[in-house]
Amino acid sequence: MKIGVLALQGAFREHVYSLEALDAHAVPVRLPDQLDDLAGLIIPGGESTAIAKLMDSYGFHAPILRRHEEGMAIWGTCAGAILVARTVVDGVADQSTLGLMDIEVRRNAFGRQVDSFEVDVSFDDFDRPFRGIFIRAPWIESVGPGVEVLAEHEGKVVAAREGRLLATAFHPELTGDPRIHRYFMERVVGASPA
Amino acid sequence: MSDVQRETGTLRVKTGLAEMLKGGVIMDVVTPEQARIAEDAGAVAVMALERVPADIRAAGGVARMADPTIVEAIISAVTIPVMAKCRIGHFVEAQVLQSLGVDYIDESEVLTPADEEHHVNKWDFTVPFVCGCRNLGEALRRIAEGAAMVRTKGEPGTGNVVEAVRHMRTLTDEIAWIKGLRPEQLFTAAKELQAPYELVKWVAENGRLPVVNFSAGGIATPADAALMMQLGCDGVFVGSGIFKSGDPAKRAKAIVEATTHFEDPDIIARVSRDLGEPMVGINISEIPEAERMQERGW
Fold first, then answer.
1. From A13, A49, A78, residue closest to B79, measured CB to CB
2. I want to staple B218 with a disulfide (CB 3.0 to 4.6 A). Which of A80, B79, B154, B277 is the partner?
3. Do B80 and A154 make contact, defined as CB atoms within 8 angstroms?
4. Smallest Cα–Cα separation from B90: which of B71, B123, B112?
5. Which of B14, B85, B122, B244 is catalytic?
């Protein structure tokens, strides 16, 4: 089972390492034809505007949507969560997203870098909290009816799932804690097709 | 509530932003309009300045932190992170930049140093710092002082990549050297590098720097950017190279694409076409030693 990590810009290497620590077959994805045999795709943290421009220039949108339709699971962290969202608040004027997941994400919602923080985040699925690293992080402002809220911080949704889509506002790849990568592999990629 | 455990300004949060910038291009800008051109081209961050290094070089005199009005105007113009430069050792300029809300401070040799012995104690700040280096010892001294990101210096404002290459190769060679040493040799290596033993040991064990390293100083073309990426840096700063060229928007986008696809010569060839006039370069040997910015930093 091959998991791709979109490697246009951002913390893609850390996702590759995290997946490899779980014995997954991880591959960096720089061009759309590399999506073809993936069971899952991670869209990493980075600058969402920069990643979106590169996705546009190299024609990623349609192939990602098609592959998701065919069953490819997708997980977006931070900038990646913005890119999978149906709606973005406070983005740049023409910010294009994949519009896949029925969530509304507010960009840089937790503030600028001086406001960036780390904090313990509780998940119902985990027996102890996960150390969330929030960097100029977005939050999920609202979720549609089919979306399961996985974690909140100060009343804001910071992790959510909808079928074969996962979104986190923080950066599990920077912690060395494998639990959310394992959750993605086992519960989102591994989920039987709806 | 979980709020009691909420911590800002931790090392992970500071180095984390640099991790998010990897594979990207950080562009020098002097106006809100330039900042928007940079963001549109796909820059991961902008460096807010009063003058780009080529103009600082031409103007001479003492170069200082930018006017807060310029920094604030650029912060309001874009949604990507905004960096700004303070003089080496000028911790009050750094305090001012933190209070303005910049996302990263560059304690930079491009400006005239304020202290010829000490750099800023960067642990005192919530905002993260990036610092220049020409070799491993310099990089580790800056990291010991709290830098959360480094950049090889190159020679700023020249459009000549030769010094950037020299510094990147030096860093890589020295890391390889440290990695090959026996444990008892690391103490002497630390003495030679004039760097803390604990950091030297970390580099020996991990075979890399503990923070993200970008390349800077003299990058002017897409091929320059890809060259530095192939030599092993994590991303690039482009200073004068974009807005001192004939078609900044097109060149900026081309450098962004070449940085992402740095191992793909077909793409680099395509984006390098018809970029208009590049900035006029300067040969390093024509710059008097006293005017070489890379020598600043201790």
1. A49
2. B154
3. no
4. B112
5. B85
How far apart CA B202 and CA B205 sit, in angstroms, is 5
Q: Which of chain B's residues have a Cβ under 8 Å away from the Cβ of A91?
A: 79
Interface of B with A in 160-189 (CB under 8 A): none
Q: How far is CA A41 from CA A12, A22, A36, in A?
A: 11, 15, 11
Work out the minimum CA distance from B286 to partner chain A, whole angstroms. Answer: 37
Point out the residue among A107, A122, A134 whose CB comes nearest to the CB of B79: A107
* pLDDT averaged over 10-residue windows placed end to end, chain A, 194 residues: 96 96 96 97 97 96 97 97 94 81 96 97 95 97 97 97 98 97 96 59
* Chain B residues whose beta carbon lies within 8 Å of the beta carbon of residue A172: none
* CA atoms within 13 A of residue B252's CA, in its CB half-sphere: 27
Residue A11: how many CB atoms within 10 A of its CB? 27
Summarised one tens digit per residue, pLDDT across range B270-280 is 999 999 988 88
All domains of chain A in start order, with CATH: 2-189 (3.40.50.880)
- ipTM, 2 decimals? 0.94
- Per residue in A48-87, pLDDT (tens digit) is 999 999 999 999 999 999 999 999 999 999 999 999 999 9
Distance CA B241, CA B228 (A): 15
Query: What residues of chain A lie within 8 A of the CB of B80, using their CB?
Result: 47, 49-50
pLDDT confidence of residue A94:
67
* Cut 0.90: pTM above it: yes
Active-site residue numbers of A?
78, 171, 173
User: Distance (Å, rounded) from C-alpha B148 to C-alpha B12?
Assistant: 9
Summarised one tens digit per residue, pLDDT across range A99-112 is 999 999 999 999 99
Nearest chain A CA: its distance from B42 CA (Å): 4
* Tokens coding B182: 């026996």
> How far apart (Å, rounded) are the C-alpha atoms in residues B113 and B294?
12
| Residues of chain B scoring pLDDT < 50 | 1-2
Distance CA B83, CA B46 (A): 6
